[in-house]
């Protein structure tokens, strides 16, 4: 059972055996018996590059801070052979927070990529169409003690689902493709944002102050258990999204083309939407609304990966990278004060959003 | 490429947009191995009929039968292996090359664990050849002329390997030369045994390239048959409110309309 790897590259001037199956240009075909998988070389390279960057950024994340450790100290601490101080800093302080940054970044960006593909619009990320804010409002409601007793992940999920339902309801008739959907979402997001502020205004100032970094997006106040719930969500959501890859590519076609190619579009859309909403809700439960990662992650992924398919894995890796770097910057810039990661990503993402809005329009994903 | 002849017919088909019937109690049959042109004035329901024949529009009542089976009961992929539709103004993701677009036509024949087979490769090659696109295979779709792009889309549905092809206004945005490019390809596909139907708004062009004409008005079929038999002065008047002199093309025998005058 040998795994046959064929390359479509003709640069080396190799002659192919007659019976070999040439794969489309720029892809590698992995074949075994009657089964075959196509790997896009550019996407493969992008994923490897992003993975290397994520690892490097993670190491930097563990090394840098108020207490600066050498990479050797960090590796020793990770292996359980470090001194007490570095073991405490790495294992108790930075590693859990790094895990949260990686998971939330991947989840936000993956959710963003899925929603953009569904709506065929780069603006249609969960952060922009109000899902983040819905999740936040519900989660804050539970934190400030409105007497609703659900755990933050469950509350955030309920909020994300409610905001999505409202956005769909308001955009009724327009479907998910088109500006009506986005405008409805922006409105829903504004209402939930106001609701969050209203909730915070009703409680004692110290409770509101404690909740503040979380409502703008921060990794410093992570509810216990929420990170694990998110990790489980990602462990399910990422493979689901990758399995949906071919259907995702078809969503870039006009609806009638996708349907006449045999896609059960309604079912696929429901799967894409629910994956996106669940990932958003779970990520908000950990870090609050860091919606910009949902815009920046897929953007970076699309830039690096091939245009042939929707860069699902590359989006997740890009999101993790951006989140780790943004939180690292937030921790270091005004040390010992911390800038919430949501503010760092907003400062970077704001100009990017403006560019998307004002750049010359072209066909496809607007 | 050999394909088995295949029949598609609508029986007492009613299609509605938001409860307003657009196609009413309509019976139509696409003759196997021939090119059918569906013609009629704007808003007569011809595009809706095509969408109904391809199951993109569910019937309010009546049936569409593919080889005698109601298409409502066919699984989506199975239907896509037997019937292909090219909608008007089809849109593709940005940055696709011609060969990649055509590869998407293989979608109904592929699965997650069977993403690219020798058969896929062969069929895409044949589709490139049929549409005369080998030289443009690696060019991005956006860089092609209108006629080339339309041929690429048709090549995509050729790669779907269906015996039935439905085209909605395949030449509406093309100039004369590019229109001929597309119609010659359509004829070539029918000569290979496929059944084709296209919605056209241009009656003379329909007469020139179709074997079978279906003339529609207000959601109903007013005439159906070979263009030489069904196209009459009265039909043109009924369809378009236009008076004309009818002649026959000395080369093809197809009807030619001249001396057109709108009737008030």
TrEMBL record, chain B:
GO biological process: iron ion transport
Domain ABC transporter: start-end pairs: 8-243
Family annotation (InterPro entries): AAA+_ATPase, ABC_transporter-like_ATP-bd, ABC_transporter-like_CS, P-loop_NTPase, Siderophore_ABC-ATPase
A single GO cellular-component term on record: plasma membrane
Keyword Transmembrane helix: no
Compartments, as annotated in UniProt: Cell membrane
Pfam families registered for this protein in UniProt: ABC_tran
GO MF assignments: ATP binding; ATP hydrolysis activity
The organism's place on the tree of life at top rank: Bacteria
Main location: membrane
Keywords for the protein's UniProt record, in alphabetical order: ATP-binding, Cell membrane, Ion transport, Iron, Iron transport, Membrane, Nucleotide-binding, Transport
The keyword ATP-binding is annotated on this UniProt entry: yes
Family matches, as SMART domains: AAA (SM00382)
Entry membrane topology: Peripheral membrane protein
PANTHER family associated with the record: IRON(3+)-HYDROXAMATE IMPORT ATP-BINDING PROTEIN FHUC
Similarity-based family: Belongs to the ABC transporter superfamily.
Name used for this protein in its record: Iron complex transport system ATP-binding protein
């Amino acid at each position: 059972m040998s795994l046959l790897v064929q390359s479509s590259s003709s640069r080396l001037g190799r002659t192919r055996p007659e019976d070999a199956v040439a794969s489309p240009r720029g892809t590698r075909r992995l074949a075994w018996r009657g089964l075959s998988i196509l790997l896009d070389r550019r996407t493969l390279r992008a994923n490897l590059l992003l993975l290397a960057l994520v690892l490097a950024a993670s190491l930097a994340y563990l090394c840098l801070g108020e207490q600066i450790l050498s990479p050797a100290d960090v590796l020793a601490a990770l292996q359980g052979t470090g001194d007490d101080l570095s073991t405490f800093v790495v294992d108790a302080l930075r590693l859990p927070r790094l895990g949260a940054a990686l998971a939330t970044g991947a989840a936000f960006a993956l959710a963003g990529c899925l929603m953009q593909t569904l709506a065929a619009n780069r603006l249609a990320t969960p952060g922009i169409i109000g899902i983040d804010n819905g999740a936040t409002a519900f989660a804050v409601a539970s934190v400030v003690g409105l007497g609703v007793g659900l755990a933050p992940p469950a509350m955030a999920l309920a909020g994300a689902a409610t905001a999505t339902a409202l956005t769909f309801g308001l955009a009724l008739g327009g479907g998910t493709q088109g500006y009506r959907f986005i405008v409805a979402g922006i409105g829903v997001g504004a209402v939930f944002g106001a609701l969050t502020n209203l909730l915070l205004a009703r409680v004692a100032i110290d409770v509101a102050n404690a909740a503040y970094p979380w409502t703008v997006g921060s990794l410093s106040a992570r509810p216990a258990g929420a990170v694990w719930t998110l990790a489980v969500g990602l462990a399910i959501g990422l493979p689901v999204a990758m399995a949906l890859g071919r259907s995702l590519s078809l969503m870039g076609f006009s609806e009638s083309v996708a349907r006449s190619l045999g896609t059960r579009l309604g079912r696929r859309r429901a799967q894409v939407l629910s994956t996106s909403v669940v990932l958003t809700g779970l990520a908000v439960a950990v870090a609050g609304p860091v919606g910009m990662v949902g815009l920046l992650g897929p953007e970076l992924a699309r830039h690096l990966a091939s245009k042939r398919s929707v860069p699902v894995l590359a989006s997740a890796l890009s999101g993790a990278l951006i989140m780790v770097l943004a939180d690292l910057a937030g921790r270091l810039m005004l040390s010992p004060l911390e800038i919430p990661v949501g503010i760092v990503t907003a400062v970077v993402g704001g100009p990017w959003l403006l560019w998307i809005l004002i750049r010359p329009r072209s066909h496809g994903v607007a | 490429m050999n394909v088995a002849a295949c029949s598609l017919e609508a029986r007492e088909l009613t299609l509605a947009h938001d409860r307003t019937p657009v196609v009413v109690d309509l019976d139509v049959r696409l003759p196997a191995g021939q090119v059918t042109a569906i013609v009629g004035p704007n808003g007569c329901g011809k595009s809706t009929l095509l969408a109904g024949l391809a199951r993109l529009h569910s019937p309010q009542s009546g049936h569409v039968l593919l080889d005698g089976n109601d298409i409502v009961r066919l699984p989506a992929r199975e239907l896509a292996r037997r019937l292909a539709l090219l909608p008007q103004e089809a849109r593709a993701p940005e940055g696709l090359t011609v060969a990649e677009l055509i590869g998407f036509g293989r979608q109904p024949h592929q699965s997650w664990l069977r993403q690219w087979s020798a058969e896929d490769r062969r069929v895409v090659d044949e589709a490139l050849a049929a549409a005369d696109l080998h030289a443009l295979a690696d060019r991005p779709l956006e860089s092609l002329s209108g006629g080339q792009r339309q041929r690429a889309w048709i090549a995509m549905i050729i790669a779907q390997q269906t015996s039935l092809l439905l085209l909605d206004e395949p030449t509406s945005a093309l100039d004369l030369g590019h229109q001929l490019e597309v119609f010659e390809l359509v004829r070539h596909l029918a000569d290979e045994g496929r059944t084709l139907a296209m919605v056209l708004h241009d009656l003379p062009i329909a007469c020139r390239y179709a074997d079978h004409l279906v003339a529609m008005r207000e959601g109903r079929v007013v005439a159906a048959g070979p263009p030489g038999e069904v196209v009459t002065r009265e039909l043109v008047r009924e369809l378009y409110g236009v008076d004309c002199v009818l002649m026959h093309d000395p080369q093809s025998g197809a009807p030619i309309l001249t001396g057109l005058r709108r009737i008030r």
